[in-house]
Each structure stands twice: as C-alpha cells, then as structure tokens.
Amino acid sequence: MKYIPVTGGVISGVGKGIIASSIGTILKSRGLQVTAIKIDPYINIDAGTFSPYEHGEVFVLSDGGEVDLDLGNYERFLDINLYKNNNITTGKIYQHVINKERHGDYLGKTVQVVPHVTDAIQEWVMNQALAPVDNNNEEPQICIIELGGTIGDIEGMPFVEAFRQFQFKAKIENFCNIHVSLVPQHSATGEQKTKPTQNSVRVLRGLGLSPDLIICRSSTPIKMATKEKISMFCHVNPEQVICIHDVSSTYRVPLLLEEQGVVKYFKERLNLPIVDSASNLLFKWKNMTDRCERLQKTCCIALVGKYTKFRDCYTSVFKALEHSALAVSHKLNLMVSSQPTLPHISLVHSDIFNELWISICWADGVLVPGGFRIRGMQGKVQAISWARTKKIPFLGVCLGLQLAMIEFARNCLNLKDADSTEFEPNAGVPVVIDMPEHNPGDLGGTMRLGIRKTVFKTENSILKKLYGDVPFIEERHRHRYEVNPSLLNQFEWSDLHCVGEDVSGERLEIVELANHPYFVGVLFHPEFSSRPMKPSPPYLGLLLAATGKLNAYLQRGRKLSKSHLFLLMEKKWWLPWGNIKVTATVIPVMTACQSQGQLRWK
Prior knowledge:
- It is a single chain.
- The chain starts with a strand and ends with a strand.
- The chain contains 21 helices and 24 strands.
- Helices cover 36% and strands 20% of the residues.
- The relative contact order is 0.10.
- The chain is globular and about 75 Å long.
- By secondary structure, it is an alpha/beta fold.
- The protein has three domains: 2-289, 3-Layer(aba) Sandwich (Rossmann fold); 296-555, Rossmann fold (3-Layer(aba) Sandwich), CATH 3.40.50.880; 571-601, no CATH class.
C-alpha cells in the first residue's frame, strides 16, 4: 500500500480536496486502484448535525454516512463509492479509544494521546485503506489521505504526530507527503509572496513531516522566479514545486498536475508499476474539459433554496446541474434565489417583484433542493406554483417534493389547510408527516439515510425512461419526513401521479405531473450519485426539458443529437484531403471548413 497524505498551509479552504481528488484521478488513469480518506479534526462524530454555513453541505454515502463534502469530490472525480469510515473525525477516534478503555483493552494503563490516540489513528487508516471502493471489488493500491484544517492548528496535532510516526511504520518508499500552500499576490504591486509558504513548511518540518511535493495555489500562474525561491527556501528541488492557479473549471486541475510531471515523480518516488503514457480515461477527461470551455449556448436554472449565501451549501446540486448541462452541450447559468419569502405575483410593477421574481420568470427550469425548517418555505411554494402553472420544467428534491405535494393539495385539491408537521405540528391536513422510525430525541444519525431501493409503479414514467426502463433504482436518502400514505389516493385521482415507491409499497418516492413538460419530485437525493461523465437522470431530465430536447432524447432511446456527438468527437468527417479522426486541436479548423461548405457527415 502506498500512502499519500495531503496537508494544507497558510489558510483553510486552500483547495486540498480538489488537489487530492485530482491526484487520485491521474493515478487512476494509469490503471491504479485508488481510495481516499478525509480527516476532520473537529470533535463532532460526523457532519450530520452541522449547519450548512459551518462546513458546507452534508454529503451522504451509500452506507448512510453523513460526511464532509470533500468525500463528494473524491467520489465524483474518481467514480468510486466510499464508506462512513473513510471520514475520520476527532470525535470518532476518541469515542473508539474510550470504548476500548471501558472494555479493558488497555490492561489498566494510563490512556494518553501518545501512544493510544495516535496508534488508533494509524490503525484506522491502515484498515480502511484496504476496503475496496470500485465495482470490481479489488483492493486499492494507493490511499490518499487529506488532513483538514491548517498545519499548526491545535486540534490537528494528534493527527500530524500520528503521521510522523506512521512514515517510519509504512517505510519511506511507501509514504509521500504533499503540502498545499497559498501564494498570495499583492493587489498593488502584483508581487507573489513566498513567505507564508516558507513559514508553513517550517511549521510542518518542526512537527516532523517533510514535504515531498509543495503544491502552490495562486490566483494567477506562478512565475519561475517565485517557484525557484520556494524551492530554495523550502529545501526541495524545483520539479517538486507544483503550481496550480485559478482556472475556469476544477476539472482542469488534473490536467495541470499531469503537465507538470506529477505522475513521473510518483512513479519514481513510490516505485509505482505504471506506464508513462496516459490512458483513455485521461483523454476523455481532457475532452470533457475542452468541451466545457467551448460551450456557447446557455441554459438558465433558478435554484430556490434556503442556504444560498455560501456556495458550498449546495455543492452536489451545483455539480449535478453542471454535469447535466455539459451532457446537453449547454453552459449552465445558475440563478439563485436567496430570499426567505417571495412577494405575491400580483406585485408586477414593484421593485421588490423585479428583484425577487426576475430569476424565476426568466429561468428555463426551476429547482427546489432539500432543506429543513420553515424559513423560506412560502417562497418555495410560490415558485413551485409558478413552475406548475406556467409549464416551466421543475425538479423537486426531498423537501422540494414535499412542498410540491403541499402546493398541489392547496391549489388543485382545495385542501387549504394542507401543510407539513415539520412546519405546523397540528396541521389541519398533514400532507407531510414524521416517519414512524424517526427518533425525535437525538439529531445525529437518526434520519433515513443511505441507499434505498425505489420501485416504479408504472411503465409510463419519464424518470423510468431516463433511468433506462429498469424496474427499480437505488439512490441515497437523507430525510425525516414523508408524504402521508393515507392521502395518496386523493392525489392518484388527479394529474399528480405517484410513479415510484419504496419496496414496502407504503412510502412515496417519485411523483410526476401529467400534461407538463417536466414536473418531477423525488424523495431521494440523486445529486450525490452524479458523476461528470454520468449525470444523474433526474437532473439530466430537467436540463433536457429546459433546453427542449427531452422528447427527442427519449424517442432516440436515450441518445443525444448529432450536434452533441460532434462535441463529443465520436464521429469521422470527410475532408478534401482524406479521412481523419476529429480531435480537440482541429475543432477550429473543422468549423472554418464547415463555414466554407467543405465539411459534411460521412
């Protein structure tokens, strides 16, 4: 097993998660089995009870683990499925050590941070690194370990000490330390400052870890003089200083690492059994990134949510929309409504109306994501009503489905007192109720979590066709409330059809509105399983409907148009000088030839 710990310096949020994911991507492109572990030094057992404004969204794994959003990055980049034990927290470690002490495993010894806590960290990493994460069920060869926070933080000290010891246990040829640091740039002079990185590396060395690679983050490309200065003062060779500047898409980061010889360094440093040439995976990744930057057409989606001040609160939702927009060859224009309530639609001449409703009125599609509590509920209901009555493509996820049912009950079934017991415990018509198995005591880990099976009730379902006409699907859940089973019959006689249910046949999972371009609600969170090259079907359906391509896509058997295939570069073209295979480098030439009438399908 080869271990690659990733630490950060200067500031938190410097991009360690994207760097770790990108390193895993380029190593996987060389045929290696890669897994990832995220260490969060906070005392919480998991991320389940966090406000999204604290650490961003709570990412849900297949086994029900509520974890840090960086594990979502790992899964999307590497196309793997991780487990709750791939996220280590101080709370988990101390709980594990205390349980062993209560059980008498330490034979009466005084339990201390060193060696008991540090040993527990090392054992956890070694055991979890062996867990298969691919569908082929093969044991990983590379384990990338991201240590959250910043070097020097007091809460991270036990983990740094654990890795100081671990580098000798794993042996130096199996241990490669990466340090990610910020290189700030003075706005007045434009000078790139290396002193913060020097200080950060000095602290890291003082704690017993020496960086093998220093990855410098900056807003603009780092100059050679700056790179040489970091090399000299941080005691590494220039080729061990990797520069990653801000780019238009995070999907370009693996390509930047590849261009700077990171794979060659890993091959020599860790003695990896890999070839020098990139595999088809990295070629597809480059094509996807090039396409993403060439897109001209735009699709506007209005996201009506609660946690809109901080982009990380809806990371997986944004990524799922991006994946789907890329699949339909459109650039995503995401318009976020940050208001807790929306004024009545009759205020058409007021400034308030123009400010709050313009994004929804101009949008090609509307999305209401998951959330909790009553704040902003009324605004979401009004947005859903607008999408339903104006025939605008709509997707409701978890809370979005629940509010769609409430809106329909109030305005179409004339159940004016329809509400959720989450918002009104004594609701006159409780359309949404607490789940029977919900534990109202503790908050952590008491929701319906993880992957669950959803069975389609009818053949005439848009989502079933989008998923590929399968009898059932498996998606990840995170919710405490469900649609009241006793009221489902009232909806069945209307246009809002219940097309999917859980295996028990008692819990609603999917609803679709008849006579509408795309009005879909799902109780699960499909965004957690979306991948850059395999977009989530519900989100893909929203983007297809918003761009007017849904019917054609389904009629062609879930195949996209020729224009999309052109962007995918999967067709051969005829030119006066013979047959060639289209690549990204000749796309501009082909476009010029087409304008002169010299290009046609063969």
